[in-house]
Amino acid sequence: MAMKSRNLAYHLKESILNLARNGWMTIASVGAVTVTLLMLGVFIVFGANTSYFTNQIEQSAEIRVHVDVTATPENEAVLQSELEKIPEIDSVDFSSKDEELEMHKESLGLDQSEELYQQYKASNPLHDVFVVKLKDPQQTETVVPQIEKLDYVDDINYGEDYVGKMFEFTKWVQIIGSVLIIALALVAVFLIVNTIRVTILSRKREIEIMRLVGATNAFIRWPFFLEGIWLGLLGSIIPITTISITYIYVDRHEVLNRMGLGLFKTIPPDPFILYVALSIVVIGTVIGVIASLLSIRKHIKI
Question: Around Cβ 62, how many Cβ atoms within 10 Å?
Fold first, then answer.
């Protein structure tokens, strides 16, 4: 155990010294990983919040079925019964035209004048409405045609177009983000490979001597393997710090509300930021490990 501890301490020391010896190559490698992880972190945060917001909209989605003005209470009862028979529908609630007027009072500009409100109410042009909730909001486009075929349905309003655009936007953000991240990750791997390569070449004679005195393959490889991990970890520091501070600031100071984007609800920072930070560390380490393994395999032929 003591021998293993001494070996580990030696490998850690050598990996750190290697980073220091390579100077600008180390800085370039860390910089590449930093940019990659910063971009990745931003896309993780943006993508997760976009999906969160889209899901909220989806869960609150409803189909508003406007009843024909010629329908009698009996006709409306039959229509409600027909709606409730549709398997995909979870609930059907009735909203009278007077309730609709109250709900839209401000948007119709009637809240400032009681006289105007009473005049409008006397000849209320609005429709009775059935508010339909689905078991799965994704089935809206399947259910709407079924509702349209029912008697005494005058019009149907639903937010599927908005949700659809949001899904389309999210999809493209993920595609573009993935392409950028892959490209940046490849650049980071390339730079780390070359950083470790420089170290290997500069220590070529030392490595040959280590072989002659009986050093095992693992003993020779470990410092370079750890070097890749160090580069990945160092590259994750700035992204984690920047994203965490910015996200918490935006949440606590209600920045989105000030920008007029209060409708866009974000994921609470705790524990979301912790998951983002762990993801960045893991991805940074994986990038470093892949680069070190590629470099060792290519430049140390044992």
Answer: 16
